[in-house]
Amino acid sequence: MTADQLKAIIGAGLPCEYLELEGDGRHWFATIVSASFEGQRLVQRQRLVYATLGNKMHTDEVHALSMKTFSPAEWANRA
């Protein structure tokens, strides 16, 4: 899977104000800013992202995804 493909999948399932991906085709790191994260705990945010991937995590198309998730307000106030 390419970064563009993974971005398209996440972006289609989650409205993102900012989405950056780095990786080697199997191991990925994402920075995601979405209003959907407002008021959500970290584990809830991760579940939202994983839900966009569907079975791609289970079929090993995406072997590993580390992520930093922010609401728009958190992103604007980051140090």
From TrEMBL:
Say which domain of life the source belongs to.
Bacteria
Q: Per the UniProt record, which residue ranges are transmembrane?
A: none
Report the InterPro entries cross-referenced here: BolA (IPR002634), BolA-like_sf (IPR036065), BolA/IbaG_stress_morph_reg (IPR050961)
Q: Which Gene3D superfamilies match?
A: BolA-like
Any Pfam family the entry gives: BolA
Similarity-based family: Belongs to the BolA/IbaG family.
Q: Entry's PANTHER family?
A: BOLA TRANSCRIPTION REGULATOR, BOLA-LIKE PROTEIN 1
Q: What protein name does the entry list? A: BolA family transcriptional regulator
Identify the species of origin.
Answer: Comamonas antarctica
